[in-house]
Write a structure and sequence with these properties.
The chain is α/β, with parallel strands linked by helices. The chain is built from nine helices and eight strands. It has helices at residues 28-39, 46-59, 67-76, 100-110, 113-130, 140-144, 158-168, 174-190, 212-223; strands at residues 16-21, 43-45, 79-81, 86-88, 91-92, 132-137, 150-155, 203-206. The strands form two sheets. It has a five-stranded parallel sheet with strand order 2-6-1-7-8.
Length: 224
């Protein structure tokens, strides 16, 4: 047998990419992580990259209205998104990037076209280095990897999404989370550059009443 890449595919073969998109609280991270484990692929939370840029801006007290400075942060910050941790310029930001301040700033950062250009290149480089992966975000199947082997769009009821997100951050109450999610849904869906959208050929799954394994089993059946 000839040499293979970390993804198990022969050198020169097209990377195996699974793209999972959807709004916050739809189950993207949990499903993507579990699916990656089942497939023997690595997993990337691209939303954490945008949150990391917002975190870097707050840490350096950069005005979010200064788009050139934010793009430069995206370009020069040392952002390392692992399966269970995130570091920004050597600082463990795993918990901070999920906090309310970053959450309220990330849509502004994600709406900057230059930031999206920089992070899109980083995401593609990540896949190239690993020979594939399971990536989740809001524009993976529509913009970053429109030719992905499988494109998925996850959704859930507004109440379910808010309950899930509130459960992730104990310091936040349901009403606050629900309001923040509604604001972010509006911002992400209407932004000029790469808005949250469902790819025409995506597999659409409502996760409201499904377990993680039920969703993953459906996706594995599609891949087979």
């Amino acid at each position: 047998m000839g040499p293979v890449t970390p993804s198990g595919r022969p050198p020169g073969a097209a990377p195996r990419v699974i793209a999972i998109d959807g709004p916050a609280g739809s189950g993207k991270s949990t499903v993507a992580r579990r699916l990656a484990e089942r497939l023997g692929l690595e997993y990337l939370d691209t939303g954490a990259m945008y949150r990391s840029v917002a975190f870097a801006a707050m840490a350096r007290e950069v005005d979010l209205a200064d788009t050139e400075a934010i793009v430069e942060l995206a370009r020069t910050s040392d952002i390392r998104v692992e399966s269970t941790s995130v570091t920004v310029d050597g600082v463990d930001a795993t918990t901070q990037i999920r906090g309310p301040e970053v959450t309220r700033s990330v849509s502004t950062v994600a709406a900057i076209s230059g930031v999206r250009d920089v992070l899109r290149l980083r995401q593609r480089a990540w896949v190239t280095a690993r020979g594939g992966g399971v990536l989740e975000g809001r524009d993976i199947g529509t913009v970053v990897f429109p030719d992905a082997e499988l494109k998925v769009y996850l959704s859930a009821s507004a109440r379910t999404r808010a309950e899930r997100r509130a459960g992730e951050v104990s310091a936040l109450d349901y009403e606050t989370v629900a309001a923040d999610l509604a604001a972010r849904d509006a911002a992400d869906s209407t932004r000029q550059h790469d808005p949250l959208a469902q790819a025409p050929d995506a597999v659409v799954i409502d996760t409201t009443d499904l377990t993680v394994d039920e969703v993953v089993d459906q996706l594995l059946a599609r891949l087979r």
